[in-house]
Design brief:
113 residues, single chain, binds guanosine-5'-monophosphate, binds zinc ion, alpha+beta, 22% strand
Length: 113
Amino acid sequence: MADCIFCKIISGEIPSNKVYEDENIYAFRDIEPQAPVHVVVVPKEHIESANDITAENSGIVASIFEKIPQIAKELGVSESGYRIVNNCGKDAGQTVKHLHFHILGGTEGGKLY
Ligand code: 5GP
Ligand code: ZN
């Protein structure tokens, strides 16, 4: 997707602070962290939002969730705990229209709801 910030981050056109990468997934530090640990995990395939998850592409979502425990461990929040957040659409405040999951940790017991 030519105009997608996250596609440009995945291709390296926009620099990022990478924390994990494999053939299907890219994870990087959020540029405007909302918690002491704030990483964004994205599929390399451009999927616009959670509304666009289908039987055909849900395997990549499964692989993101399979990798999150390993990423959380490397970030040092595995034991202390973390939130996995997806914002879908306007009323959720989704600002980048490329499916992504936030990993938020280091908040010392903080809940945001
Ligand atoms: P959303 O609000 O769509 O759920 O999350 C988008 C996230 O992407 C925001 O937390 C925002 O700070 C982050 N973001 C937007 N542009 C960039 C960028 O160029 N680099 C990085 N590392 N994060 C970005
Ligand atoms: Zn994209």
